[in-house]
Each structure stands twice: as structure tokens, then as C-alpha cells.
């Protein structure tokens, strides 16, 4: 009887040892993955030096509640050298204090005149680097040298209505991209090329729209409605963590 109990004890100890070893291995493997691929985990800190991961969009949206954190992040990619003066408005729902000039991302025309809230600038940096650039190389065989736009800050309500919810443009948390200037001299526009461009051009435009959906809280394209026939509406909303609109 004693030998049976001793055998059971040994087996239990062996099982506990195996469980402990597996736990230690699992924890070590997690730490390694978190170090090498922090973009794959929802609780790791966002860095604009990292590639896009499944939780990058949520982390970008959360920057709306952490303006100092956002400004520190864009400093990593030299956007912080382009801080813009705060804008106040008699309408309390309008204005911003975390403006970033988009000159570093080569926005055309008048790049020095375009300012967005910091989370938009951070998302645009990742979109340009990890979505637009590879899509242009794959589908168009060239580079994008500039983005064309219809503006960011605009103290207005949704669709210019006189009442109702305020647009994300009212706080510069939205940017309307109307097209792309290519290194080979072409100029693609959403209005002309979404359905009227070559097969490769249409594939490029749809791929960069889909990639924007992974980063911005709201991505509205010509597929959404006639009001967006000529641009991508790219917006960030700090309360939208875990939710996004992609149309």
C-alpha cells in the first residue's frame, strides 16, 4: 500500500513539474513574442516604429485621450517638429490643441497649410508607410510622392447641417484624401479613377481603402454614398476603441 501511495505521489510531482515547465516555457515564449512583435498584442504600448498589427487601430483611437502620449509618439518619426499652434473657436465643440502640420507626409497642395489632430497624423504616417507605399509598388510599379486632399479642420456639423452631431472635422480629427500623385507623373483621383481608372489603378485604390480601415475609426469611400464620391474620409474617434466603420 505504501508503495502505491509513493508511486501516486511521484506521478503527481512529475505532473506538477511538467505543468510548471510548460507554464515557464509559455511565459518565456510570450515575453519573446511581445518583445519581437508588440503590434500583435492589445496591451503592449503603441510605437510608430512597429508594423501595423490587429490592435493598432484601437491604440491609435485611444491616443485621443492621451494628447501628450501622442505627441511623444510622433516625435519618434520626426512629425513632432511640425507642431501647429492651437486653434480655439467661439463654438466650444470646435478647435484643437494637438495639431500637427502634415508637411512631413508631403500632402499637396500647400502642404504647410494642412493641419490635423495628432492621432490622424500618427495614423497617416502608418498608412503611408505600410499600406500606400507597398500597394503602389505592387499595383502601379511606382511610388506615391504626394497625397491630394480636401481639408481637415472645419467647424461644422455632419454634412453641413444646422443641427445634430458635430463632424470630426470640427476638431481636426478627420482628413479627406482626394487622390495621389505618383512618381511616374500620373495623378489618380477618387472621382475619376475609383471606377474609371485602369484595373491596376482601381485595385490600388481599393487596397489602400481597405488598409485605412485597419487604422482609422471611420473610413468612408466612394462605395459609401455620393457625398464621398471624390474622397476618402479618414477619421479618428477616441471613444471608438473596439469599433470601426469601413465602407
From TrEMBL:
Residues 70-247 form the Extensin-like C-terminal domain. This is Extensin family protein. Pfam families: Extensin-like_C.
Amino acid at each position: 500500500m505504501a508503495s502505491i501511495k509513493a508511486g501516486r505521489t511521484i506521478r503527481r510531482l512529475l505532473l506538477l513539474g511538467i505543468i510548471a515547465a510548460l507554464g515557464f516555457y509559455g511565459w518565456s515564449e510570450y515575453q519573446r513574442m511581445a518583445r519581437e512583435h508588440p503590434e500583435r498584442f492589445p496591451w503592449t504600448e503603441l510605437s510608430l516604429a512597429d508594423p501595423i498589427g490587429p490592435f493598432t487601430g484601437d491604440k491609435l483611437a485611444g491616443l485621443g485621450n492621451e494628447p501628450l502620449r501622442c505627441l511623444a509618439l510622433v516625435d519618434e518619426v520626426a512629425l513632432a517638429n511640425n507642431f501647429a499652434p492651437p486653434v480655439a473657436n467661439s463654438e466650444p465643440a470646435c478647435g484643437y490643441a494637438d495639431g500637427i502640420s502634415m508637411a512631413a507626409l508631403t500632402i499637396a497642395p500647400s502642404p504647410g497649410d494642412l493641419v490635423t489632430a495628432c492621432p490622424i497624423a500618427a495614423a497617416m504616417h502608418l498608412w503611408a508607410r505600410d499600406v500606400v507605399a507597398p500597394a503602389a509598388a505592387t499595383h502601379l510599379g511606382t511610388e506615391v510622392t504626394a497625397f491630394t486632399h480636401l481639408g481637415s479642420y472645419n467647424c461644422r456639423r455632419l454634412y453641413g447641417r444646422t443641427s445634430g452631431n458635430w463632424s470630426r472635422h470640427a476638431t481636426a480629427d478627420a482628413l479627406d484624401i482626394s487622390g495621389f500623385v505618383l512618381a511616374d507623373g500620373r495623378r489618380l483621383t477618387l472621382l475619376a479613377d475609383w471606377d474609371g481608372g485602369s484595373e491596376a489603378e482601381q485595385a490600388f485604390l481599393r487596397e489602400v481603402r481597405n488598409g485605412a480601415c485597419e487604422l482609422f475609426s471611420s473610413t468612408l469611400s466612394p462605395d459609401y454614398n455620393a457625398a464621398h464620391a471624390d474622397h476618402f474620409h479618414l477619421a479618428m474617434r477616441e471613444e471608438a476603441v473596439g469599433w470601426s466603420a469601413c465602407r
